[in-house]
Give the backbone structure.
Amino acid sequence: MGNMNFVQRSNLFNFTATRCLRNEYYHNDCRICIDLCPKGAFHIVRNKLTLFENECIGCAGCIGSCPTESLEIESFDPNGFAASYVNQSDTTLSCKVSTPCLGVFDTEHYAVMALRSQKNVACDLSHCAGCVLNENGKLGDVIREKIDVANDFLTSIQTPYRIETIEMQEQQNERRALFRKGFEKIKESVVNDSGAEIAMTTAHHKLPDMKMPLKRILLKNSLKEVIGGVEKTDFAETSPLFFNKQIDFHSCTNCGECTQFCPTDALFPTSDKQGIFFSQGKCIGCSICEEICKPKAITKKVGFDLVSIAFDRAEQLVHYEMVMCHECRCPYPYKGGDPICDRCADYTKTFSNMFTLAKDM
Ligand code: SF4
Ligand code: SF4
Ligand code: SF4
């Protein structure tokens, strides 16, 4: 077990703990990778996510599901692969030919491949049923769910291209034995020669800690290229891919915590610091803002707008007039009524008995 404040390496597999939502934000309890890992290699140690390197087999099944791209394998870059998919000669995604486990991709990657290549993307899921990594069926379900979400998105923007799945029957027992053998072989070759054999793409990226995940930047850029031809861009329903927020003017105290803790700067203060902007294109739906807001003023909003997402348009959710409190003389966001800040109003309410006693005496 390495130092959990730095990049943990496990032969093929990197876990950057400083990008992990759970590790960086006290209020976040993301456990996507813990629930997905077929080997139980992730553990919570002193409330932090920690990778036990000797238990990780580098199968890549969890990689595509991490919302902040904290998980990577050195031999395969899903972002580079999705961006250059249009140039691939074999366009079928298969864990036996072109990629590791398809769990390495997220919904964004599937959508980007279809949009950039302007053709259907075929995914060979024939091997999932007999795969040792998918013994409880969870990994296979997650892969299918992402493909479904990508297809819903492609349908919503009226492109004719889809993510197709190929599911052929195979002899399970034979398949498992073969897989084990093949996997050990791959692992061996990478340990001995990490540059060669399974170097499927080369465009490996390094993100600064806690910024916009590259998969979402790729999706936004792909969306920009097609949005001119899309008829309907404004949707009234919720989406598992895009997120929207609203702030209740009367409950919000303008404390600014949501803007300080938002990992992708989707929430940010106005230049006069008297209001809050929100950018749909940057939100990864981690819910940290909702969990951290004491008066519960920020909540999910139904609907999303593809133009705002593609072009990073920000909407002002609240703006305040700052006035001086007549009691303490500190500036505060005025909401109407007597110009007395919440703190003084609370103080007066809490100690009203004491004031009454003092007056009566
Ligand atoms: S999925 Fe990513 S953000 Fe979530 S706990 Fe795992 S490493 Fe952290
Ligand atoms: S929405 Fe909540 S966290 Fe954000 S500024 Fe308002 S009160 Fe503070
Ligand atoms: S706006 Fe909220 S849900 Fe979206 S990325 Fe920021 S903290 Fe997470």
The longest strand covers residues 314-319. Confidence is low (pLDDT under 50) at residues 1-5, 173-208.
